[in-house]
Amino acid sequence: MRDPELISEFVAQSLEHLEDVEPLLLDMEKRGLASSEAMNEMFRAVHSIKGAAGFLGLEAIQELSDGMESLFMGLRDEDLVFRKAMVNPLLAGVDELRILLRDLRDDENSNADAPHALVRELERLRSGDASTADLDPELIAACQVQLDRGHHLVVIPVPDAQRARRALLSRVARFGEVVREDAPVQGRAVVASPLEADLLAEALGLEPADAADFAPAGLAARAEPALDADSLSLLMAELPRELPEELPVEGADRRAETVRVNISLLDRLMDLAGELVLVRNQLRQRLGQIEERGARTLFQNVDRVTGELQEHIMSARMQPMRGLLGRLPRLVRDLAQRLGKQVDLELGGGEVELDRSILQALADPMTHLLRNSLDHGIESADERRAAGKWERGRIRVHARHERGRVVIEVGDDGRGVDAARVREAAVARGVVSRAAAGALSDAEALSLVFEPGLSTSDEITDLSGRGVGLDVVKTRIAELGGQVELETSSARGSTFTIHLPLTLAILRSLVVSVADERLALPQVSLVEVVGLREDERQVEVIGGASVLRLRGNLLPLVNLRAMLGLPPDPTLETSVVVLRSGADRYGLVVDDLHDGEEIVVKPLPSYLASCGWYAGTTILGDGRVAMILDAAGLARAASLRFGEARVGAGAEARPEPARETRSVVLFRNGADEQFALPLDQLHRLEQVSPDRVEQVGDRAFVQYAGLPLPLVRLEDVLPVGAPEEPTDRFYVLIPRLEGRRAGILARRIVDTLETDAVPDPSRLAGGGVLGSAIVEGRMTLFLDAERLLDEAGLGRTG
Amino acid sequence: MSGAATVIASETRLCTFYLGDERYGIDILTVREVQRGPVVTAVRGAHRAIRGLVNLRGRVVTVLDPAVQLGHDERPLDAKTRLVILKTNAELPRVEGAPLETGDDRVGLCVDRISDVHTVEAGGIDPLPMHVSGSEGRLSGVVQLEDEVIRVMDPAAMLRLEEDERA
């Protein structure tokens, strides 16, 4: 029996060691050689795995790590020459070790066998004969000649591009002689020079780590250098004065000291911090009644400490993106190799932190997007050359914070997504009709790539496959409370932008009530809110079930009071919250609506799992527990009445007419609000740089079509937030209004889409706002362009 | 766990409380704390014995009515109601010979009034007499005092819900 605690500690540490090894191996492959420093680090990592495995009696792990260790040792001590062919077996070794370690984590008594073929391969590579056997005897002879002259033999990287290669080699000629290009491997050259490797690197403007001594077995010992002091100083005079700046290496930064903490402990600390906030709030109320100066000051301290404590505990659940990003180079390398494409991966924002549960759930969609870029985005080298692009494609993954959310961009410089082809594919696969496809704008057509069953690639590859595509990505991201958007052009490639909340534990929700009970509805399942007025006879009873007649459509109604076993109260004015559950929509009748709240989700006690229509629990601001309703579960629980309502409606009503939809442009200006302007009210949408906006008095103008166009800032007219940060571009929405010229300033265009949401005038209406509705899961203000210009004092100009 | 009385080696300390006029006890090793009943959020559609949820220092606790579990009627919860919060299985101390068991969720039993802690010598808990009815194995024995009887609860059995008792 093995000690489970020791084993789990060993597994965790070993997996961390392997995390360090993989990027170094990839770097080694890219540069065609390894610095002895990197070699040392990999050696140490594998060595400590081997040591601990030996101690714990884990033979398979010990055997495999021993094979890897001796190869690293041989390379470090320079009795082996690095070859690219070594990278694959070493990477395979990392993978196999991971598998063995994970088996062990699941079952501490697992006794899996070592992958013997791989161990033998590593031994073969180690035993040197492999390294000289494929070296050309002629090269060895030529090297021997140079060595005998007293020169150093150095391997340097040479670029693939012809012009850059010639430039480098002509510089080499000033310090020595090229013995052979593309030796010992493609993309490198063996150079003989009186300068030692590091000096030569300096002279050539290479990183010192890039140049390595070439010492294959079979060469006789190096003679003493035949260089005298004079010729050395002559050569040194040729050295460039300024050394090339050191390139910052992402992710290679210092690791702060850490301890492992159980996640459940962090969750508990978070609960307690939340509770402390509530106690503080109660204390504040009490203190309001007592007038004592000392108590005030003390309270302010408690207040500050409480806030800070909560913030830090929240941040303890956060992990940097680095871990996730660190896995991508390997993925991209493997995929690129299989597809025969050349790709550089650029990573950024490794320091951006996200809740660990989100990070975990993000791995799949990110992998998918990268595959998509490599497979469909990046062209073959030939195509790229023909298009006048660099042969090597570029993929850029970058994370950043933006207004309390995390934004991740996955971009490539490939061929882009062609809206026309998306239309064709959508018609061919039956996603939309031909007529409907023709009516779509390019942006709308592009948004179809997120529909199930759509792939525009001509061939089906084993990477991205068919059918499982971006719709999965969109679903996953939505489950995390985020959105994904696509921006594309044939010249610049495609960029997918993912917006995510910082933490999963916090959910945007609408709090509703029946009688004196409050319940939370997750924002993601909200469609719209409808006020019920008895006199308008919106509610009908068909086949014994109530339905709501909404814009010519019959919507089954679920009465929350009835569901919860509460008696009806006919005196109440009720509201209907329209919820979506999969493809179904239904109305939930509630007594009252409260504010939207960001709530902390707590798991449902197991005693309540059988109820089926609760998604979890939460603690509201006053310290009371509230249930979170599950829209799908509620629909299921009400299925009898729900089903009958639909059948009844179908039997007695005409076939359900499609809900009226209209196209709107969604945009944002300040931090919080989302706005919508119907497309038929929009004349033009222009992008302008801030320096084109001129201020005259308190009115801003932009030059448009040769005339100054007055601009409306939404925050001046409406009770909405102002943009916080400066920007490098504005958008100006120019409404289509008879005899009036003006533009509305916006910071970000979110989307153009068809929506059947109808703004509810009872909420937030007036002064240029038609009303509000929920579009794409967010409360959106629908603008009335004409009234808005009136409010802004921009009258008719005739 | 029923019949626990016979395996308890040395003395047992019982946390005792009243449901109506009847005095009950539960091994104090399974009790985490006793709380005033804060505001209980009723959960519609839950089992009849589930009186609702409370917020205990940021953690959601399920309130279970032991009287309902023992076949009595629901009583209204009021300001005098106390919650006997039990330890979860993970929090129980290890006891040689008489392993303790509760449940995995944090649960509070709502009781009418808390009484004192009563210490029983080994063998001081008698088997359940025939006339104590409706316990469904939820009581493990009785302690006979001069003027009253303490009915001893089996915590794990107390926390198990019978099927098909949905309100």
Plain-language structure description:
The complex is a heterodimer of chains A (798) and B (167). By secondary structure, chain A is of the alpha+beta class. Chain A is 39% helix and 25% strand. In chain A, strands 14-18-19-17-16-15 form a six-stranded mixed β-sheet. Chain A has a six-stranded mixed β-sheet with strand order 25-29-30-28-27-26. In chain A, helix 1 runs antiparallel to helix 4 (87-106). Mean pLDDT of chain A is 77; it is low at 222-229, 235-255, 456-468 and 640-658. Chain B has a single domain, classed as CheA-289, Domain 4 (OB fold (Dihydrolipoamide Acetyltransferase, E2P)), CATH 2.40.50.180. In chain B, strand 1 and strand 2 (22-27) form a beta hairpin. The longest helix of chain B is centred in the last third of the chain and has 5 residues, at 155-159. Chain B is globular and about 40 Å long. Residues 1-8 of chain B have low confidence and may be disordered. At the A-B interface, helix 11, strand 21 and strand 22 of A face strand 4 and strand 5 of B.
Task: Walk me through the topology.
The complex is a heterodimer of chains A (798) and B (167).
Chain A: H1 4-31, H2 36-56, H3 59-76, H4 87-106, H5 116-126, H6 129-133, H7 137-148, E1 152-157, H8 162-175, E2 177-181, E3 188-193, H9 197-204, E4 212-213, H10 229-237, H11 263-289, H12 293-316, E5 318-320, H13 322-326, H14 328-339, E6 343-348, E7 353-355, H15 356-377, H16 381-386, E8 393-402, E9 405-412, H17 419-428, H18 434-439, H19 442-447, H20 470-479, E10 483-489, E11 493-501, E12 506-514, E13 517-522, E14 526-531, E15 539-542, E16 545-550, E17 553-559, H21 560-563, E18 575-581, E19 584-590, E20 592-600, E21 614-619, E22 625-629, H22 631-637, H23 639-652, E23 662-668, E24 674-678, E25 682-688, E26 693-696, E27 699-704, E28 707-712, H24 714-717, E29 730-735, E30 743-746, E31 748-755, E32 769-775, E33 778-783, H25 785-791
Parallel strand pairs in A: 6-8, 13-22, 17-19, 24-33, 28-30
Antiparallel strand pairs in A: 1-3, 1-4, 2-3, 5-7, 8-9, 9-11, 10-11, 12-13, 12-20, 14-18, 15-16, 16-17, 18-19, 21-22, 23-24, 23-31, 25-29, 26-27, 27-28, 29-30, 32-33
Helix pairs in contact in A: 1-2, 1-4, 2-3, 3-4, 3-5, 4-5, 11-12, 14-15, 15-20
Chain B: E1 12-19, E2 22-27, E3 31-36, E4 50-56, E5 59-64, H1 66-69, E6 82-86, E7 107-111, E8 113-120, E9 139-144, E10 149-153, H2 155-159
Parallel strand pairs in B: 2-10, 5-7
Antiparallel strand pairs in B: 1-2, 1-8, 3-6, 4-5, 6-7, 9-10
